[in-house]
């Protein structure tokens, strides 16, 4: 009797102690995780403060300096510091405040300075406009820094915890300290709304690239019915009877299109494709069929892709890269005009390695960039271009090419392919000025080639 | 009369004892099981050997991350919708308004629900998801440069509707 009571008591006690220990341990773990998270956020914030201070300092120096070497150093320093600031900003749990303008500001600041540094390296000095733009960047960076400094004071006084931001869900309210911080960031971002002028320059983040449109007229407007016919024609289904068109919708992208989904039979994997409303071009096609065991060689697959392109009216296309992924081969083709490879005029085709069918197609690059180009006669001879490349490069091939620069600009170059230290590179030497415009590493594996 | 009461108590006692013991056992066994055999939510459920990274091929890391995103955000969507979701991530990486790496974009605090609730790590990745991720990295973009996608049925933020809508595929709307 008493023994049982004692056992029950002991058991209850054990349960109590065990439970207590378990709760204590989970609490400890949770707290450790929270502090680790908090430390991460605080680091991002304090680092960002320092990035902004360094940016202020470097911008001032690049305005004050008159030495080309010094300027290149400070300008590339700004680029690195701005990218770091961008990374730190992206690490802050500011889900409730929209910081896209600040992100863009930092990206453009860095990008712009990198372009200036490149120009300086080519002995091109800053003009008045560019100097003024640097001044503007300097002032704006100071303003942002001031806003951050204010918030920093608030954080130090009120002991704000960043993780309370991260834990915020849906309609939950912020604490007063949190609210003032969120407002502070909101003000910084809002402050950049009107003051970032539309910035057009030579970098990949330049504003003019966001609103780009196709370089040539795509053609007359087509009706939905014509687009459907075009889709069936493209898939080679014109006289087949089993297919059905599942749905048609309209898109409002850079090239407005009809979206069409075709299914050959009831349970067949659907094929989606977009047909441009102007001209009825197939913009892209994606088949959801997953290719099975490969039976075609890569060369056979490339030939299938090329034949398909010719059938679709893409003449004079040459293979520029290919890569095996699973049981399919993705091949890039570029247009060739009078022996010159036009890389921007890009069409991509994915060939299934089991039956050689085309499972994906993309002509957006071609349709956005293709236009009549007036290519000048190269001023350099191929041998002269080969003399411009790095001494150690064992040259394998030299040919003429037009390359995109990440902006809308293109360059007419000699493409010199060669090996250094066992790795293959493509060096692009401007065919008119002899300048080294671009340098790519070619990754050659069994699966295919990629450029880095 | 005192003879029967303890007897009854004894029966009740036995039940209570048994129950307590059972409870203690369950909790302990559960704890031990969880500790030693429990599923680690961060352990990837299926690593495709075909995706084992080749030397110097950073693109494989991006495929790995992106296919996980497709698996957790675009499960059950039409294939072109899966490619579009992966393409939005690629578009963000290239955009000045978002971090410049795939990991930076995906793990931006509070950017994507699956990363917050852990399904990013636990959702099973199929061949189709991997294929969609590869296709997006190869430049296919059914979203035409969109930077956002949302499900009109469940989107909680009114701000998202201020975006310019480009297209809609399956359950998702894509916009700039």
What do you see in this structure?
The complex is a heterodimer of chains A (452) and B (176). Chain A has 452 residues and is α+β, with helices and mostly antiparallel strands. Chain A folds into 4 domains: 2-209, no CATH class; 213-288, Nuclear Transport Factor 2, Chain: A (Roll); 291-371, Nuclear Transport Factor 2, Chain: A (Roll), CATH 3.10.450; 382-451, Nuclear Transport Factor 2, Chain: A (Roll), CATH 3.10.450. In chain A, 45% of the residues lie in helices and 24% in strands. In chain A, strands 1, 2, 3, 4, 5, 6, 7, 8, 9, 10, 11, 12 and 13 form a 13-stranded mixed β-sheet that branches. The longest helix of chain A is centred in the N-terminal third of the chain and has 63 residues, at 2-64. Chain A starts with a helix and ends with a strand. The mean pLDDT of chain A is 88. Chain B folds into 2 domains: 1-38; 49-175, Orthogonal Bundle (Arc Repressor Mutant, subunit A), CATH 1.10.10. In chain B, α2 packs across α3 (79-94) and α2 crosses α7 (127-137). The termini of chain B are far apart. At the A-B interface, α1, α2, α3 and β4 of A face α1, α3, α7 and β2 of B.
């Amino acid at each position: 009797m008493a023994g049982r009571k004692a056992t029950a008591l002991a058991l209850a006690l054990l349960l109590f102690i065990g439970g207590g220990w378990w709760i204590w341990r989970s609490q400890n773990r949770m707290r450790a995780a929270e502090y680790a998270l908090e430390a991460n956020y605080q680091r991002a914030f304090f680092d960002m403060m320092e990035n902004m201070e360094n940016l202020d300092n470097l911008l001032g120096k690049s305005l004050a300096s008159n030495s080309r070497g010094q300027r290149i150093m400070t300008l590339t320093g700004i680029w690195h510091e701005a990218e770091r600031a961008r990374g730190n900003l992206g690490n802050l749990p500011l889900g409730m405040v929209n910081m896209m303008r600040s992100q863009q500001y930092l990206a453009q600041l860095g990008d712009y300075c990198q372009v200036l540094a490149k120009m300086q390296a080519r002995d091109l000095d800053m003009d008045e406009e560019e100097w003024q733009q640097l001044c503007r960047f300097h002032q704006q960076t100071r303003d942002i820094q001031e806003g951050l400094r204010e918030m920093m004071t608030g954080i130090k006084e009120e002991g704000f915890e960043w993780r309370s931001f991260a834990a915020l869900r849906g309609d939950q309210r912020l604490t007063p300290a949190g609210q003032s911080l969120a407002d502070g960031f909101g003000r910084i971002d809002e402050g950049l709304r009107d003051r970032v002028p539309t910035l057009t320059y030579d970098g990949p983040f330049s504003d003019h690239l966001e609103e780009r449109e196709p370089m040539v007229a795509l053609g007359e407007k087509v009706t939905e019915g014509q687009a459907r016919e075009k889709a069936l024609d493209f898939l080679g289904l014109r006289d087949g009877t089993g297919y059905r068109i599942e749905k048609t919708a309209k898109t409002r992208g850079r090239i407005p299109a009809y979206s069409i989904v075709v299914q050959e039979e009831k349970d067949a994997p659907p094929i989606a494709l977009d047909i441009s409303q102007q001209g009825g071009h197939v913009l892209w096609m994606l088949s959801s069929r997953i290719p099975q065991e490969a039976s075609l060689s890569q060369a056979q697959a490339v030939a299938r892709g090329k034949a398909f392109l010719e059938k679709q009216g893409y003449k004079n296309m040459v293979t520029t890269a290919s890569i095996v992924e699973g049981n399919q081969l993705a091949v890039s083709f570029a247009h060739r005009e009078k022996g010159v490879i036009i890389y921007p005029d890009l069409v991509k085709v994915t060939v299934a390695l089991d039956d050689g069918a085309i499972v994906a197609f993309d002509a957006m690059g071609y349709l956005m960039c293709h236009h009549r180009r007036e290519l000048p006669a190269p001023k350099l001879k191929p041998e002269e271009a080969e003399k411009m490349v790095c001494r150690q490069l064992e040259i394998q091939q030299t040919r003429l090419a037009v390359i995109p620069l990440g902006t809308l600009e293109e360059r007419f170059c000699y493409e010199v392919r060669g090996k250094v230290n066992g790795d293959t590179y493509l060096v692009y030497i401007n065919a008119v000025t002899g300048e080294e415009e671009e340098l790519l590493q070619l990754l050659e594996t069994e699966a295919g080639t990629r450029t880095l | 009369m005192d003879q029967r009461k303890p007897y009854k108590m004894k029966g009740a006692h036995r039940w209570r004892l048994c129950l307590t013991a059972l409870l203690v056992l369950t909790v302990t066994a559960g704890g031990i099981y969880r500790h030693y055999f429990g599923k680690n939510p961060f352990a990837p459920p299926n690593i495709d050997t075909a995706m084992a990274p080749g030397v110097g091929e950073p693109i494989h890391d991006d495929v790995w991350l992106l296919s996980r995103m497709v698996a957790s955000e675009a499960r059950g969507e039409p294939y072109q919708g899966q490619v579009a979701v992966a393409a939005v991530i690629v578009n963000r990486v290239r955009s000045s308004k978002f971090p410049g790496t795939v990991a930076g974009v995906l793990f931006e605090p509070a950017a994507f629900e699956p990363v917050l609730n852990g399904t990013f790590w636990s959702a099973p990745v199929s061949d189709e998801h991997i294929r969609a991720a590869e296709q997006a990295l190869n430049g296919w973009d059914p979203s035409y440069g969109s930077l956002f996608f949302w499900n009109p049925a469940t989107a909680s933020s009114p701000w998202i509707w201020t975006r310019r809508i480009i297209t809609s595929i399956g359950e998702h709307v894509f916009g700039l």
